[in-house]
Amino acid sequence: MNEVLEFYPILIKGTITTVQLTVLGAILALIVSFIVGIARISSFAPIRVIAIIYLEFFRGSSALVQMFFIYFVLPMWGIYFDAITAGVVACGLNVGAYGSEVVRGAIIAVSKEQHEACKALNYSSLKKYRYVIIPQAIPIMIPTFGNLLIELLKLTAVASLITISDLTFMAQIIRVQTALTLEPFLLILVIYFIIATVLVQIVDLIAKKFSKGRNIMTAGDK
Amino acid sequence: MEWNWDHAFAVLPQLAEGLVVTIQATIVASLLAYVLGLGIAILKMSKSNLTRVSIYWVTEFVRRTPILVQLYVVFYVLPDFGIFLEAFTCGVIVLGIHFSTYTSEVFRAGIDNVPKGQWEAAKSLNYNPLQTWKNVILPQAIPPMIPPLANYLITMFKETPLLAAITVVELFRAADQYSNSHYTYLEPMTLVGVFFLIVSIPSAMLAMKLEKKYKQAKTA
User: Fold this and answer.
1) How close are the terminal C-alpha atoms of chain A, in Å?
2) N or C: which end of chain A has fewer CB within 10 A?
3) Tens of pLDDT along A6-15?
4) CATH tag, B5-219
5) Mean of all residue pLDDT scores within chain A
6) Which tens digits make up the pLDDT trace of B94-118?
7) Residues 6 or more apart whose Cβ sits within 8 Å of residue A100
8) How far apart are CA A103 and CA A36, in angstroms?
């Protein structure tokens, strides 16, 4: 184990890269989730169709294939990404597809009366979502977003296969250099677990903050 | 870069072989995930606090760490302990264990949804635990579980490309091998993507139909 710990500089570097991928991927995924999720309930059919194609494409194929496509195939059409960007884009777009379903589900779960109230107040679509629907939908989304965040963290390990030097990549380097197998992988499993557990705690805190003083009413409980 | 049909047709036979391995891995891994998941669900309902807490943290550890790293652990570490397994077997075991932590939640929710009165009825009929599970609880708990379990089957199918990292020549690795020897990623990778979409989109639609069917059955 000591032999492995001597590699602490690259382990720290790998941890930072993994956290970076997770945070940047999460930001992209969040933006994509809201855009696609709201597009799914648009009254304009072409926008709905584009959103569904996006969703089915990213949900229907494998994340590893998407990552390879972005990193190896897109350059052939003159679209270049460095490895980290390709990793963030692939993770963000993939998890964003799942997230859009969460956003759509939460918006639908806001009770019908709220939509009717907006109509009665003659709110524009933008005003309706900005002030009435989204603020009520967010607390419903948070727990599922928390699960997706863990999925995203786990997905970043796959990015090591497109040469990104994240934790998993570093563990492979240590394995090759020391010929040890159990120690490096066990160590990074624990690091992943710690990162994930911290993320779970943060999401719990956010969930508590958002549900404070709110009487969340979903379509189910009346 | 132009699409080259010669490459597309040349890679197809290899992709077909890869697809067979992918589907085999999906089926075996999912069976393992279902059996283990049911076991975990039963342990999670144990009366002993110690069992419940330890099974919770073990499953959370598996759930919160990447499948890829778990694959490396089994693939590289087991031989050091004198256990030599084929790459395919390693992959199936890891996928099965990883997803059993997800399916266990489905089983637990399904079992929780069986009304308490059913348990009491079984008790009043003096059923032993085996009879209770086999004749009363499972027949009622299983139908609503089928749609979510089908969804996890599709999820596992989409995770099988990770097996390529431990040398299993499934759909993705078959394409990657062709790419590396012919210096073209466009056709093989696109076709792999298409293969995945062709299998998973209709399966997802089927799962949705099942969901509707069981919802109707419940309200009727």
Assistant:
1) 57
2) C
3) 889 999 999 9
4) 1.10.3720.10
5) 90
6) 999 999 999 999 999 999 999 999 9
7) A32, A33, A34, A35, A36, A37, A39, A40, A51, A55
8) 9
* Angle, CA of B129, B35 and B157, to the nearest 5°: 155
Cα A127 from chain centroid (whole Å): 27
- Report the amino acid identity of residue A172: Q
Place of tokens 């979510």: B148
Q: Do B73 and A60 touch (CB under 8 A)?
A: no
Q: Is B101 in CB contact (< 8 Å) with chain A? A: no
Per-residue pLDDT tens over the stretch B144-161? 899 899 999 999 999 999
Which residue in B2, B57, B72 has the most chain A C-beta atoms within 10 A of its own C-beta, making it the best mutation to test that interface? Answer: B72
B13: exposed, middle or buried (Cβ count in 10 Å: 0-12, 13-18, 19+): exposed
For residue B185, which residues of chain A lie inside 8 Å, CB to CB? 68, 72-73, 76
What residue segments make up the domains of chain B, in order of their start? 5-219
B158 touches chain A (CB under 8 A): yes
A68, A80, A168, A192: which to substitute to probe chain B, counting the most B Cβ within 10 Å? Answer: A68
Q: Which residue ranges form the domains of chain A, and what is each CATH number? A: 2-211 (1.10.3720.10)
Contact B164 A64 (CB under 8 A): yes
Cα→Cα distances A92→A123, B10, B107, B111, B128, Å: 33, 33, 30, 35, 51
